[in-house]
Sequence to fold (222 residues):
Amino acid sequence: MKKGYEFTMKRNIFIVVLLIALVSMFASCDMSMSSDALSRSLSTSDEVVSRKVGKTGGPTSFTATVNVYQDYESVVTEHKGDSNHYKTVEETLYSFAYGPYGGAVESDWDLLDGKNVIMNNVTNYNLDPVTGAISGSNHSVIKIVDDAMQVVAVLEANGTIDGSLLGAEIAMNWVLKEMNGKKVNARGKIGGLFTWAQFNYETMSLEYILPNGTFNLTGTYN
Fold:
């Protein structure tokens, strides 16, 4: 009787231990599966977020530099009465390489890099004939052209000019108006120095040169 009782007890203990082991094993598997599922879920979420960021990313910043010079034969200027006020109603600047002047645009935006510029200006300004001081406002239509002379983009800019014939600061805001039918939002600023003359210290007078200037464009596009 005692042996039967001991056998029964041992069997029950074995069953209990076996059940505990099984429960522990299933719990471990379940936790592992839950961890894997959570990892896959987080990975999927990261991919979704990444795709959303890629699609809704903000504007891209860029810079560009170009030297332009004046086609003096294109300039038409009106003198407003007996004053120092003038209006240039026609003026064209080019960036096509011409001796030490011009050269293709250098930019980290493919649309502009390696292209050339044709810039048409209308300028209202005051010019002091004695000091050469100049100041006024400027409106520009800037065509970006490729090697085949095809217009790839058109910018419009408005701003001011201030300085002298020895060098006047150009400060304008620009916006992209056309781009081969594509919808691109782009805008920014133009700054630079435009020069009409240099000082000759031997004659102590101004010497006129080919009017030119180096412009720096900054902005964003998307």
In short: The helical segments are 2-55. The longest strand covers residues 205-221.
